[in-house]
Amino acid sequence: MIENWNKPTPAQSAFAEPLFNRVGKPIRPSPVKTATSTQLPYAGVATSVRPLPGKEGLSENLAGLKVATLAGGVGGAKMIQGIVNAIESSNVTAIVNTGDDTVLHGLCISPDLDTVTYTLAGIIDREKGWGLTDESWTVMDTLAEFNGETWFRLGDKDIALHMFRTDMLNRGATLSEITSTLCNHFGITAHILPMSDKPVSTMLTLMDSEEEIGFQEYFVKLSHAVPVSRIRYSGAEASVAAPGVIEALTSADVIVICPSNPFLSILPILSVPDISTLLPSPFYGTDSGQIYSPNAGSLIEESTPTNQHHINPAIRAKTVAVSPVIAGKALRGPADRLLGEMGLEPTAVGVARIYKDIASVFIIDSQDIKLKEEIEAMGMTCLVANTIMEGIESSRNLAIETIRAAIQAKSSTIHYNE
Hints:
The protein is an alpha/beta fold.
């Protein structure tokens, strides 16, 4: 909470390691000064986007459920907004990918955390799906005059938030603590948690040059237009789940894997070892991090990668995944192409293969109804729905169907093919 910054936490007292240890040497924090909500823009604006009046789409029992989500990117943020508008927002925990976190211009940037935060605060630029509404670009435009690096566009108000985060990290605050402070500032009553307070970086090997590059260079600078041969989650082996993550997963009535890119948003979360004990994923563990490659992909059905087959039936029974691929195409980003490059079908079926060990229910769009039988042959219950979220109401409707499907699956005996 922002008013408590003057009282160091145990992590601050121990001079916790900054999230981005790539920026020089760790800095021992100076005493954290008291801050007030007026020091950040948009204080309290989230009141305009709190749950819609009434929850007629759900029974009282369902409306009081605890829901944990795994998410990243625009699709994940929209899904979380739908859930927050369907049930009590304080019962929602969003566990957010930080594998695409980066440092630019000396600033610590957490794009997925910010997209979820801005969306729930009602200040997201809906046209772009990222950044702030009514943003200005004076800093970037001026930097361009100096021929500076401007391929990663940052708005002026967005920069202010990154400055705040960077300063707090350098003072010894953790990413979790800073995210909580920002939620409090923006009036968000749902819980937004980074997957880990330790750095985990999504690295991609280019198919043509065999060069390994970071996520933002691939996704933004190269416009994700280059083929990839391997994906590595650097630092995953040494990471631990952020405070509250494991508790949220174990205590949730329903776990929702949002329609985010499996390789760039969800698998980085599952690469964190203590998360993967609950939600196993198809990785090879190495000294340089968790790896997903076409070789590993081909062994999903045939062998035992690092965390494979340590299936948690209780967790799987309450987990539902929503496909981000519709009719063989991703609505945003390269999910469909990455599926093919990683040796899987570039359809909802390929996504289902990734999640079949961790989710008992898989939701596909009505355009993919012909894939239902093939997905159910993997041992998952397959629900067909309208998964395109064009606005708050459609995301809320999808959230209601998703929660209902998970609850019904929990109360049924589902045949599971290992």
